Amino acid sequence: MFGLILLLIGFDQASSELLAFPTMSLIFGFILFFAISFVSSLLLPLYFEEQRSRGLEEVSAFNKIYFYFHLLVVVVLVYMELGILHTWGLNKILLSLCAMEWIWAMYWWKHSRTTALVIPTSSFKEDLRHFPSLLLPLFTFSVVSGIIQSILYRQIQNVLAPLAFHYSLYLAALILSWAMASLWFRGKRGYEFLNWNSFKKHSAVLILSLLVWSLSWPVFWAAIMELISWPDSATATFLQRSLFCVGLILPTGFFFGSLLPLVKKENNQIPLGTYLAVNCSGNAVGILLFISILFEATGIFQLWTLLGLLCLIFANKENKMRILTAGVSVVLCTLTYFLVTDFSWALGSYSHRNLTRWVKDSRSVTDVKVFKHNSSEVNFVELDHSHKLMIMNGHHSINLPSWRSYSPADTFMGLTPLSYTNKHGNALVIGLGTGTTVMGAAELFSHVDVVDLDPTMLKVLDFMPLVAEKVKSKNVKFTEADGLTFLRTQKRRYDLIINNVPSPVYFAAAKLWSREALEGVYDSLEDDGIFAQWLDGELSLESVNILLQTSQDLFKHCDMFYLQFNFYSLVCSKGDHPLTLHEHPSAAANLMQTDTRSYADFFEALRFPAVNTTPQNPNAPMNTLDQPYMDVLVAQRPPGWVGDQTRDNIVQYFKLYEQVDQEAALKSPAIDKKCRIFSNWIFHKEFKDKGEPCSRIF
């Protein structure tokens, strides 16, 4: 444990160097992630098995204290992340745990009376020869365990995104289920209830049942969220997420947590090291199969049918059991097929933002197009045969008016920085999104890098042919990668960088607003480079202040643009270089489907020049990878259209009411003109009479 914690502490410091070697980074990261999960999940079964075999009176007081200390660490994981992670920082927490591990180790070394550990002389090959009926099924079960854990973890990421502490909840629920299995099966009743031989006979049924449960539980959970009226509070959000994690993982953890006691009951001669090696190897193979081959190549239904047949082949020796297990497996595979056919990964964190809720509430859905890639999903929804909107993994993303072939707000996000760029060599867009944000840079720059961790939208570009034509041009290169990783490892310098991820709400993307990410942007820009990013009005005032504090002394000069309700574009120059407004490119006017003169008026109407980006609270912390304040704030209280649906914290923070207002418009021709263009952009209403009051914008 001490060594694992040291690896964790050094991982972030060495990550920039490691990421330059993708294969080495993948192997090291996988080993680190798997080792911590594996060691943690084995603590309970090993401890309870020792109690059962040696007797309670033979277990030392230190052993009890050591065990319960680690159990306490698991229990308080969520509190550590939500309560002290953003104040202590990840490294301080790990260092304190490391010091505790060292104290325990020294105490054990001084006071323990047990004999020194003797490495068994028998080879792993000999163990396989002596115990094939035990180790081969165990390896197969471990492979299935790795695949199931991968599916469950991916579901937690998708269904609960954004979730800063999803791994803590996952691990806590897993440990809880392992504990329950160990407590049950270490007693005589548990062994009588299910022994190793019956376990093997019913393996296919048990495994396929777990698949059906893992696919069904998110559906049940979404129904529960619909039926129960939850209060708008951080506690309620935490309870919802805990309910989902425990309900999803408990049966699976209980199932695999029973393996060790059953194995030890049936054959106490197998060395524990051999058991751990077989189980670890099987888990590793299962996880790698899931993420690399089977999930992509065969699909989830074919994968689980294959696994069920394999279980039938090796597990059943009696004809009666073969027929029974085969029949049940066919039924479960059929149920799985129907679940997978109509199953949506896009249930969403917030029930009021998911596709099912849209269909139920609107009662005007006339068409839905679904696009999937890996375990992500995009829905194009048509309302009343005209108005279209897009839902990405359960989140309402954009509205697409019927008279447009692409989103004007997303397009303008990519156009706002173009009038400030002095050179048009290289541009970088982090986040593909709908692809429309890339169009302006693709039209103007010699080379454009587009980086996205999830390229789902590449599959739906054909739905927007004009966008596809721009994004798939020769000067645009798409890279499937993490944005922060790309910034740390690429060597190219850019004249323009756009962070096209709308807010930290989307899949815990707060790291793109971390100090490390902004420094990566700063270092990747040319001296006169321009940086543009979205600002989400749903973020709390505290979150906005932290974002501005994080970018201090990197991007001082900024203009802001209104894009649509709750969303803004912040365009900044690097360092002390002032923003210089150049001639508007004709390509921008063409993409906004207007003439150059109208585009210039439109640009100025939506622009709030020289906004004050100095944090209102100078003592606010920075958002860093070590102290992820944004992750914690989003996890404690996710932004969303809950309660007051007209709330826009960007307006309040930057005091934009004073710049566009009905009364001010009546007194100032300039503000009146801006207000009218503004209103036409938002409400599509033209004001013919100057005396007619301009509609209040916010």
Commentary on this structure:
The chain has 698 residues and is an alpha/beta fold. Helix content is 57%, strand content 11%. The chain contains 29 helices and twelve strands. An eight-stranded mixed β-sheet has the order 7-6-5-8-9-11-10-12. Strand 6 (447-452), helix 20 (465-471) and strand 7 (476-480) form a beta-alpha-beta unit. The protein starts with a helix and ends in a 15-residue tail after the last helix.
Which descriptors apply to this entry?
8-stranded mixed sheet; 29 helices
List the helices and strands and how they pair.
Blueprint lengths: L1 H17 L3 H33 L6 H15 L1 H12 L1 H22 L12 H7 L1 H29 L5 H20 L2 H6 L2 H6 L1 H25 L6 H24 L1 H8 L5 H26 L1 H17 L3 H23 L13 H8 L2 E9 L2 E8 L3 E6 L2 E6 L7 H8 L10 E5 L5 H9 L2 E6 L12 H7 L4 E5 L2 H7 L4 E6 L15 H10 E12 L4 H10 L7 E7 L2 E7 L12 H6 L4 H10 L1 E2 L20 H8 L12 H6 L7 H6 L1 H15 L15
Parallel strand pairs: 5-6, 5-8, 6-7, 8-9
Antiparallel strand pairs: 1-2, 2-3, 3-4, 9-11, 10-11, 10-12
Helix pairs in contact: 1-2, 1-5, 2-3, 2-8, 4-26, 7-11, 7-12, 7-14, 8-12, 11-12, 11-15, 11-16, 15-16, 18-19, 25-29
